[in-house]
Amino acid sequence: MPGATGRSRNRLDDTCGRYMLHPASGNLAAMKFLVGNIAPDIVSQLRNYAKLMRLDRPIGIWLLLWPTLWALWLAGKGHPDPGLFVVFVLGVIVMRSAGCVLNDYVDRNIDPYVERTRTRPIASGAVLPMEALTLFAALGFIAVGLATMLNRPAQLLAIVAAALTIAYPFFKRFVSIPQFILGAAFGWAAPMAFAAHTGGTPQLAWLVFGATLVWAVIYDTFYAMVDREDDRKVGVKSTALLFGDMDLFVIAGLQLVMIIALVLIGLRAALGLWYYGAVVVFSGTDAVPPVARARPPACRLLRSIPAQPPHRHGDIHRHRAALRIQSVAVRFIRRCSTSPACGSRDRVGATRRAVRCNDPPVASRRGG
């Protein structure tokens, strides 16, 4: 055994000797040796591969699976084909895993410098880049095998899905809207599901695709807002950087677009009142909580509003609108018993923090 320590070599020799003299007891000893010395390393590396595929964080699988199931149920008019259901669920898991592996491989020289990603398997050295490529190739072969079980229209769309998956990690370096590429990749399962079920891609399929694309841009922009400063330093582009201080307003507009798309889907598919009731509930839960959590502390929103009136005539209306928004935000903070965004636990603390955000320094308030 090249590279084995003297102790390991002696233990292996003893094990082999006992196996030759007493086959039954030797077999048991050999198994104990394998489990105690080799199996832990294998299990540990398998865990690293699972982390590389984000299997320990299944929310990404759900975000990709939900629109896929929407499309399957709509295409099957409430009764999707069981075989297609299995193929698409497995395809979601495989393609999401492959996308994560490729993304980490492409970002292997960037992730060590980003606080949130420096502990990822490749960035931390737990998985070698060549191992990641091998794993990506294996997942790709599995995806190809699943695609062969679909009809020709769905197979042609699967090629586009693969191209979007491969392109996304590279788009972050050249365009400012990589979240739209990610959204297209996540939403492409919708036309694929319709094509596999009906042989075509009707207007309803593209409405589901559009709603999914906008949805992915919304939540991934929130995600990118966490890495905004690190992305700016390393040169990675994102919609969080593109939207800048207007990010929450743009996201609110995108949320409105998604709600309209969901309503159009219901009209096109002739869905009932239960569907529209769910859209109403979604509208309330989708718009308010993300805005409250988006940019902690909330004081940053107040700091982005200019303290002095603009000198250019064209900025007067925008300035007045900003002041109205500022006053609404301050009143909202004052009325809240708790403010998770500012980390306060009482009404007085939240109000004082909100006031301190826009107040001038204490010395200037006192005249020097």
Molecular structure report:
- With 368 residues, the protein is mainly α.
- The protein folds into three domains: 6-49; 55-295, UbiA prenyltransferase (Tetracycline Repressor, domain 2, Orthogonal Bundle), CATH 1.10.357; 303-365, no CATH class.
- 74% of the residues lie in helices and 0% in strands.
- It has helices spanning 6-21, 23-52, 59-75, 82-106, 121-124, 129-147, 152-171, 178-187, 189-198, 203-226, 228-234, 239-243, 247-268, 273-294, 299-303, 316-335, 347-358, 362-365.
- Helix 7 packs antiparallel against helix 9 (189-198).
- The longest helix is centred in the N-terminal third of the chain and has 30 residues, at 23-52.
- The protein is globular.
State the helicity in percent bands.
over 70%
Q: How are helices and strands ordered from N to C?
A: HHHHHHHHHHHHHHHHHH
**How many structural domains can be distinguished in the coordinates?**
3
How many whole angstroms does the radius of gyration measure? 27 Å
* CATH fourth-tier homologous superfamily of the largest domain: UbiA prenyltransferase
Specify the CATH architecture of the largest domain: Orthogonal Bundle
Largest β-sheet summary? none
Q: Give the overall silhouette.
A: globular
Mean pLDDT: 76
Overall SS class? mainly alpha
Span of the ends, CA to CA: 78 Å
CATH C-level class of the largest domain: Mainly Alpha
Number of strands: 0
CATH T-level fold name of the largest domain: Tetracycline Repressor, domain 2
Individual helix count = 18
